[in-house]
User: Fold this.
Amino acid sequence: MPETADADLTRQPPGDSPTKSEQGDSGGLSARSGYPKTTEPIQIYWMYAIPLALIHILALLALIPSLFSWTGLVLAVLGHLTFGMLGITIGYHRLLTHQGFVCPKWLEHFLALLGICCLQDSPARWVAIHRLHHRDSDERPDPHSPLVNFFWGHVGWLLVKNRDHRDINCYERYVRDLLRDPFYLRLEKHALWLLIYITHAVLFFAAGFLYGWLTRDSLSYGLWFGTSLFVWGVVVRTVFVLNGTWAVNSLSHLWGYRNYATPDNSRNNWLVALLSHGEGWHNNHHQDQRAASHGHRWWEFDMSWWVIWLLERMGLAKEVVRPRKVTR
Ligand SMILES: [Zn+2]
Ligand SMILES: [Zn+2]
Assistant:
């Protein structure tokens, strides 16, 4: 168990993170309308803007009927569960960010690798930004509050430079616990995480190409099948998972009901919960951040929690944090 695990990491990230007053941000309702000061003057961050635009443009290929295959569709659905739920929801969020449970290192690293295949940045950077969000939720330094505007909260914040997120030296204080592990440190170097994403995409194409070519003895069939698996199994799935995660930041901070009077504008949104394997019960999560279960009422179905529960039963997840108080 990491030494910082007893503390509520997300309210007080490890290290010497500056307080709001040290940053000069006033906080409070009056500060809710502005972009984070660390994004001023607004400058496009092309390193993010180009790949994110590209993956959304590529997703339009799914509209071409001849590129459809049932295998591709099945891979997209399974990929949403494997990469989206295991990688992002359970791996990046509930395990690495909030330490809602502990598991063997091999499994932790495997979940992190699945998360990398969602094009949502390296584990350390994702965790750092999410901890910043919890520290200042919906106040001015929040990296992605939709109270600025919906587009900003959904994706706009990713498209501009933010001095707090620029390089490892800026955010390492928020993820010191993670970067002690050489595995996560190595992923930061030379954008290794991006290389892993590209490699997994190539493997999807190559597997489809080889299978199609060898089983039909037709190069053109192989090319078609490989392209179909790439479009559906990688691109469509990536865009779906990306927007599901972004919807937690945008929709679940704007619309839905609240079980708890948290100081932010977090909401429980059933649609987002469906799209993101339980992450839409976001007001519950802001109330009790370390809890591995986000559904606090009997009907708030949280698929990710049941997977963690299963891992616990299998002896692979330990020290699973339950909600402090469950609303009936
Ligand atoms: Zn939130
Ligand atoms: Zn969180």
